[in-house]
């Protein structure tokens, strides 16, 4: 089993192709509100998502809170996966499964403390995967990710052990710490934004170093296979 690699905050088709050529399994396209420097408009997201070749996955990051609004965002942009960055009402998550039966759904859990573990049963039956990040969505100006902050990997590792769904790990990863993260957490996949950028632009050297570090860790980590992201 190999760790899947998702490169987030893609800002152009050129960045998407760079990530794909270097070995990314997925790219992330930020469509959150309120807008951040990494947010793209729906037309730009749709243009990139339509050109991403299978089996590469295109993730739409949305901060919509209802099943109907999330489904509409997906229909406008056409990704293969929707990443729900807010911890929405579980009833809305259940409705979304009915509205988007052919779109893979990933629920973000922002790991601030051990209470993150209590959220697993709220969503596990309705989503295809979880993604653990270090945002603070309850701030006056919400943080949904891309912070460059680490969170407690002890909690993340326990989340992976308890979850029946695949788990992506995000939050402060870089070429220098991703090997340790894989060894400690054993995630299905890793996801990063700022750790492979220089002055806001995707950095080829950092990207190659990150992917090499992931593959080096895969070569020595012994773990039980996780359920695939179907």
Protein topology:
Elements: E1 4-7, H1 13-22, E2 26-30, H2 42-51, E3 57-62, H3 67-77, E4 81-84, H4 90-99, E5 104-110, H5 120-123, E6 129-133, H6 153-162, E7 167-169, H7 178-185, E8 189-192, E9 197-198, E10 201-202, H8 204-220
Parallel strand pairs: 1-2, 1-8, 2-3, 3-4, 4-5, 5-6, 6-7, 7-8
Antiparallel strand pairs: 9-10
Question: Which structural class matches the secondary elements?
Answer: alpha/beta
Outline, from the CA principal axes? globular
Number of helices: 8
Query: Any idea what the radius of gyration is?
Result: 16 Å
* CATH T-level fold name: TIM Barrel
CATH architecture, by name, is: Alpha-Beta Barrel
Helix content: 25-40%
CATH class reads Alpha Beta
Largest sheet: 8 strands, parallel, barrel
The H-and-E topology, N to C, reads as EHEHEHEHEHEHEHEEEH
**Regions with little confidence, pLDDT below 50 for 5+ residues:** none
End-to-end separation in angstroms reads 15 Å
Read across the widest sheet, the strand sequence of neighbours is: 1-2-3-4-5-6-7-8
Domain module tally: 1
Number of strands: 10
Structure overview:
The chain has eight helices and ten strands. The protein is α/β, with parallel strands linked by helices. It has a single domain (4-220), classed as Alpha-Beta Barrel (TIM Barrel). An eight-stranded parallel β-barrel has the order 1-2-3-4-5-6-7-8, surrounded by four helices. It has a two-stranded antiparallel ribbon with strand order 9-10. Helix 3 (67-77) crosses helix 4 and helix 7 packs parallel to helix 8 (204-220). The longest helix has 17 residues, at 204-220. The radius of gyration is 16 Å and the shape is globular. The chain starts with a strand and ends in a 10-residue tail after the last helix. 45% of the residues are buried. The mean pLDDT is 91.
């Amino acid at each position: 089993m190999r760790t899947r690699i998702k490169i987030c905050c893609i800002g152009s088709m050129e960045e998407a192709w760079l990530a794909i050529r270097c070995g990314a399994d997925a790219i992330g396209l930020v469509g959150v509100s309120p807008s951040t420097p990494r947010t793209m408009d729906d037309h730009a997201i749709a243009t990139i998502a339509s050109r991403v070749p299978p089996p590469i996955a295109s993730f739409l990051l949305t901060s919509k809170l209802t099943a109907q609004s999330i489904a509409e965002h997906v229909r406008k942009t056409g990704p293969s996966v929707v990443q729900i960055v807010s911890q929405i009402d579980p009833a809305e998550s259940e409705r979304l499964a009915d509205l988007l039966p052919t779109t893979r759904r990933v629920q973000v859990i922002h790991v601030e403390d051990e209470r993150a573990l209590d959220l697993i049963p709220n969503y596990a039956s309705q989503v295809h995967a979880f993604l653990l990040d270090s945002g603070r969505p309850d701030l006056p100006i919400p943080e949904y990710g891309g912070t460059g902050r680490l969170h407690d990997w002890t909690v993340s590792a326990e989340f992976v052990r308890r979850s029946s769904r695949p788990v992506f790990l995000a939050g402060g990863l870089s070429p220098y710490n991703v090997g340790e993260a894989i060894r400690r957490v054993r995630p299905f996949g890793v996801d990063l934004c700022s750790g492979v950028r220089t002055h806001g632009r995707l950095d080829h050297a950092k990207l190659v170093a990150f992917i090499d570090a992931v593959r080096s860790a895969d070569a020595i980590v012994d773990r039980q296979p996780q359920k695939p992201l179907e």
